[in-house]
Amino acid sequence: MPLTPWREIVTPHRDIATGRYHQAEFAANLGEVIAGNADTEYQDPIEFFDRTYLTAGMQRLLATAVKQITGKDGEPVVQLKTAFGGGKTHSMLALYHLLRGEADATQMEGAEQILNTAEVNELPTARFAVIVGTALNPARTQKVNGITTRTLWGNIAAQLGGQDGYAIIKTADKKSVAPGADDLTTLLNEFGPAIILIDELVAYTRNIYNVNGLPAGSFDANLTFVQALTEAVKNAEQSQLVASIPESDIEIGGKAGQEALARIQHTIGRLEGIWRPVDADEGFEIVRRRLFSPVKDQTAHDAVCRAFTQLYDENPSDFPVECRDAPYLDRLRRAYPIHPELFDRLYDDWSPLENFQKTRGVLRFMAAVIHHLWINEDRAPLILPSSIPLDSPHVREELLRYLPENWNAVVDKDVDGNRSEPRAIDEANTRFGEISAARRVARTIFMGSAPHGSEQAVRGLEEMRIRLGTVQLDEHVSVFNDATKRLTDRLTHLYTRAQRYWYDTHPNLRRTMEDRAAKLEPELVETEIVRRLKCHPLFRPQFSKFKRRFAVEIL
Q1: Strand order in 127-132's β-sheet?
Q2: Which of 179, 206, 217, 525 is the most exposed place for a label (fewest CB within 10 A)?
Q3: Integer Cα distance of 529 and 117 in angstroms
Q4: In this structure, which long-range contacts are made by residues 150-153, counting pairs with CB atoms below 8 Å and at least 24 apart in sequence?
Q5: How far apart are alpha carbons 118 and 95 in whole angstroms?
Q6: Same domain membership, residue 433 and residue 534
Q7: What pLDDT shows up at residue 273?
Q8: Which residues constitute the domain of residue 540?
Q9: What average pLDDT does the segment 6-32 reach?
């Protein structure tokens, strides 16, 4: 009995299904939310938590904040540090929506679990001061609650306490000199519980590196403020500072960024255990929640997942050993309708690329994939690496934007497209063509071919992983094995070594040899063969007894 296609069990959110999403939507913007200009999924706390999966790191962050502002054993200073696109801003948004008091705990999915972890019965509220470094111009004054401010400390005071709060550090703001920790402690105690969120602090401070006379104050004055603020939050009764610190060179910048990062890290310090980046298994839930509505038919969902584990159990020599372990069934269920192997390729092979934005990059890419599969009425049980429509310009653009331009030609010729060699192989062989075997194998290998750099010791996919990323239920493994061999014989940029397969931008040796051979005239080749045989010591004495044709046959 055929299994239910994924499209009948789960539905993409309307914006994904209709293609009305914008790639910028996957980049949380704290400044836009504070200004009230963000999209509903980020602006509305209920909608935000409906589409947000609370990772282990995020849960600990939120529970710690609840403890801190209720006078329990929390953490006054938290540093969020992950790689580019690792969820720092999204976590700050979760904290902002949870504790602003705009929605009850019962309305925000996961909020009651946070209260249980923090051992608190009611959801507390806090005043927020939010600084987004990239949104502020240190060369200009800022209007905050009708108050003209010059510095970060003036901005924070005006946010927390209006005119009364600003009055506490007014002199320091006017003179662009960092206030003392005592004044800041007074501010926090009078207008607490208070939570201060500072995003893109390195970006802000590097803008004032070696620049004097700005309203924002000097580089040293701002770092002195960070130190004073850290001490004040620790001394205050129920307040917390959460600051995001970049990890990737892209966000840090040049010398100014490096200097700012070093000083800020030394000042704030690292509180290990409060934050950790998203792992691949948590990525399952993040992507599923953001891109898909809840599962409509749990029985059909479970039947598909069990059928795939049965396929792997019954063919132990064809698939990786971990697919037969009990935890793999749970991975299938959590990742549905996307196969875990596709997540593994994205997180293991693509996320190490310098420009790939971790979960944000996965969301951007999978939104394009799911939209294409949805409108083209894909009927597969699961979305595999082989399902990726690399002949779609939008999908291809989302993946190749992280690679050098010469990869476009590789995909056109050897992976997917109207004039690609895998398509020609499928069209010439009915057995392959019925299920697009060659194209699907080529797509799977390409998804495992992201180049991390010259130091990469092991590249490509093993044959078992190719089959895992390609074979749907009720399909014969042998067809894909044969298609893999055919691709190896025909493709220019496909490499194989030690039973691993990958693509590269350089033509492989086989194709280089064949291309050169094709340029030679057969008669010249035959003449050269005869000449070399005549000169060879083994053939020279007896060569006259043989005809040239026989000599050619010997070779």
Answers
A1: 77-82, 239-246, 194-199, 127-132
A2: 525
A3: 81
A4: 150/174, 150/176, 150/215, 150/216, 150/217, 151/176, 151/215, 151/216, 151/217, 151/221, 151/222, 151/225, 152/198, 152/204, 152/216, 152/222, 152/225, 153/178, 153/179, 153/184, 153/225, 153/229
A5: 14
A6: no
A7: 34
A8: 520-554
A9: 80
Beta bridge partners of 12: 292
CA 131, 137, 139, 143 dihedral sign is: negative
| Joined tokens for residue 287 | 């992507």
Nearest CA-CA partner of 68 in 188, 174, 164: 188
Q: What's the start-to-end Cα distance of the chain, in Å?
A: 56
Q: 5: left (phi > 0), else alpha (psi -120 to 50), else beta?
A: beta
pLDDT digits (tens, 9 = 90+) for 118-159: 999 999 999 999 999 888 999 999 999 999 999 999 999 999
Task: Give residue 168's identity as a one-letter amino acid code.
Answer: I
The alpha-helical segments, DSSP class H, found in 415-461 are 421-428, 430-433, 437-447
Is 506 found in the same domain as 472? yes
* Strand arrangement, sheet containing 461-462: 461-462, 500-503, 494-497
Report the alpha-carbon distance of residue 219 to residue 170 in Å, rounded.
20
Q: Please compute the mean of the pLDDT values over residues 199-206 and round it to a whole number.
A: 84
**Share above pLDDT 90 across residues of the chain, in percent, rounded to a whole number:** 54
- φ/ψ (deg, to 5) at 136: -105, 140
Q: Residue 454 in contact with residue 324, Cβ under 8 Å? A: no
Extract the tokens encoding 527.
């003449």
> Same domain for 389 and 240?
no
Give how many domains the chain has, as a whole number: 3
Q: What span, in angstroms and rounded, lies between the C-alpha atoms of 224 and 216?
A: 13
Residues 236, 317 within the same domain: no
Can you tell me which residue has the tokens 């093993």? Answer: 462
Identity of the residue numbered 259:
E
Place of tokens 């720092």: 88
Assess whether 161 and 79 both reside in one domain.
yes
Residues 215 and 327 occupy one common structural domain: no
What CA–CA distance (Å, rounded) separates 117 from 126? 19
31-35, 187-191, 216-220, 424-428: the lowest-pLDDT one: 31-35
Answer whether 131's CB lies under 8 Å from 201's CB.
Answer: yes
| Distance, CA of 382 to CA of 469 (rounded, Å) | 11
Contact between residue 56 and residue 114 where contact means Cβ atoms under 8 Å apart: no
DSSP state of 25: G
Confirm whether pTM is higher than 0.90: no
**461: β partners:** 501
Same domain, yes or no, for 222 and 134?
Answer: yes
Residue 404 belongs to a domain: yes
Query: Do residue 506 and residue 532 come from a single domain?
Result: no
H/E run at residue 81: strand 77-82
Higher pLDDT: 398 or 533? It is: 398
DSSP state of 136: -
Q: Are 249 and 205 in contact (CB under 8 A)?
A: no
Q: Is the dihedral angle over the CA atoms 102, 105, 110, 115 positive or is it negative?
A: positive
Strands 194-199 and 239-246 turn out to be parallel
Contact 58, 94 (CB under 8 A): yes
Q: How confident is the model over 194-212, as a mean pLDDT?
A: 87
Q: Distance between CA 473 and CA 482 in Å, rounded?
A: 18
